[in-house]
Amino acid sequence: MPKGIPNPAAMYGIYLRSWGYEVSIVRNGKRYFQQFGRASYGGDAQALRQAQEWRDGVVRSVPPVPRRTRAEKLRVNNTTGVSGVFCQVAPGGKVRAWVAKTYIGQDEILRTDFPVNTVGESAQALAIEERARQLERMDGLAKLHPAEESIRTSPPSAPAGLLAPKRSKSEIRRSTNSSGVSGVHFKAPNPGHPGYWLAITYTAGRGSVSKAFSIKEHGPEKAKQLAIEERQRQLEEKLAFLQQDSSVAARTPPLSIPFLLDQPSQASSLQHGMTAGGTRPPQ
User: Fold this and answer.
1) How many domains does the chain contain in total?
2) Pick from 26, 27, 63, 134: most CB atoms within 10 A?
3) Is residue 3 part of a domain?
């Protein structure tokens, strides 16, 4: 937006990038920053919605400073040691008056001058006292953007069920992907090898699950299709695991002792292109 014109409320603190959206909000000298890529959330609409929800969470949990606190902060060009108090100097360098000035709101600026030739050496002290009285009329929070108040007082705009979870790196289809499906890759150990299609899925706390389909055994098209179907099965299994894990965590007492599985699951044995029997996939 042009300088001096705030962004629309929907885009407050949100910046469009070639890969998605970036949120950047400063509170009390601290920057709150997060990125939301289209590839990570399955498209532009979800990436923007995630960015807006994250931005709204920051606005609600970290309000701006009170207006008075900000008004009392000394500026770098302040030479008196008191914000809002400055002196007027005559051409010869002699202090002519001390001034207390406070911006209360639009069309309301408080100002009182204390000429030295009238009140004498107490002019500066009187200006400081007047500034304190002026600040007592200042209330509310600092206004950073017109959308701030409405965001802070409104409930979350998107129910949790409408927000797509962030995809893991294995679920994002890369530009080098040759299958058109994330997590499905063609592998060939050496130039003379017919190769195989591999379906692989990573789950945090569980590791990678993979299964290969040999082109020599199934043919190129069938092997690829089997890998795509296997990838879909792995994703469904991952989703079920994450849902079960979150459900168990919600029901687990805070001081419970975690248990260990006696036997590794079949999924954990299918790592690095190995089958359940511990051998390489057929070639």
Assistant:
1) 3
2) 134
3) no
Helix ranges, 97-191 (H): 116-119, 123-135, 148-153
Tokens (6 digits) for 256: 């419970």
One domain, residues 100 and 117: yes
The answer to whether the Cα torsion of 155, 160, 162, 164 is positive or negative is positive
pTM comes to 0.51
The residue whose two tokens read 């099965």 is 233
Residue recorded with tokens 């995630």 = 50
User: Are 59 and 105 part of one and the same domain?
Assistant: no
Q: Which domain holds residue 128?
A: 67-135
Closest by CA position to 138, among listed 78, 83, 89: 83
> Is residue 2 in some structural domain?
no
In a shared domain, residues 33 and 157: yes
Angle of CA points 120, 122, 124, to nearest 5°? 110
Whether residue 281 lies inside any domain: the answer is no
In which band, very low, low, confident or very high, does the pLDDT at 2 lie, cut at 50, 70 and 90?
low
SS (H, E, C) 258-278: CCCCCCCCHHHHCCCCCCCCC
Q: Per the domain annotation, does 278 fall within a domain? A: no
pLDDT at 55 (0 to 100): 92
